[in-house]
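ok so i was messing around last nite and threw this chain in just to see what happens. nothing serious, just curious
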Amino acid sequence: MPDTRHTRLLIIGSGPAGYTAAVYGARAMLEPILVQGIQPGGQLTTTTDVENWPGDSSVMGPDLMARMESHAREMGTDIITDMITALDLSSRPFTATGDSGTVYTADAVVLATGAQAKWLGLPSEEKFKGFGVSACATCDGFFYRGKEIVVVGGGNTAVEEALFLTNFASKVTLVHRRDSLRAEKIMQDRLFRNPKIEVLWNHTPIEIQGDDTPPGVTGVKVRHVETAEEQVIPCAGFFVAIGHAPASELVKDQLTLHNGGYVWVEPGTTRTSVPGVFAAGDLTDHVYRQAVTSAGMGCMAALDAEAFLSAQE
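result:
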């Protein structure tokens, strides 16, 4: 027989939203269980310097997440190293099955499984992640003051990232595989008017080039989609802006989703379409996607869950 554990509040995910929900849930005496998932600490564990977390002028991403985890533990959260592979929200108590075989039952659930940036899948892209390759301009743009940057993508995200990066970079090259952008017209107008931005049409990146000691990007090799002609664009930073994929697979057939798979929540709350199930952080936030906003939503989710459980009693 599989091991079964019951909790008043089950938190799935261990980024800023999950750990903050855990702190507030524990303070409310809900004795929460938090299941960390496949990447304990979330996206910040793949980030080097974080300079936009209030109270820390500079902190390493993995260190910040370790502090959050420690805080949640000290408050009384039971943190489990496991990954939820199945979730049944059809009736209460809700039932979650872990990869370990453990079955978790809960009176309320906070979903904080996050979202992952979509990557190109190049081996060299993986090699230089955190050393010149990024998927978050607001996180890492500051490190490229006075340097040349390449952004890949053609939607609103790519245009927004390129425009934002002109605050720091001496030049931004936007590489797009087609001959027109998908971004909104007003965004395109701003892009084309910016003297720091050059658009390279009908090209795709095929290799990120760089140094090994110390590791760092020096250029991006691109290929023309029609002629196959190749060239290298010198740069110190390469930003991938081809969208994000919310980790909503567990609930895609059980909760209302919108905007390409993000979990819908009632405006001004973290309440989803199923009573007793709450969502926080990048799983539901397709606009801001920042650690501090995720943490704020984690707080909201725990308070919403406490109110729900109190009403049930």
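not much to say yet. The chain has seven helices and 21 strands.
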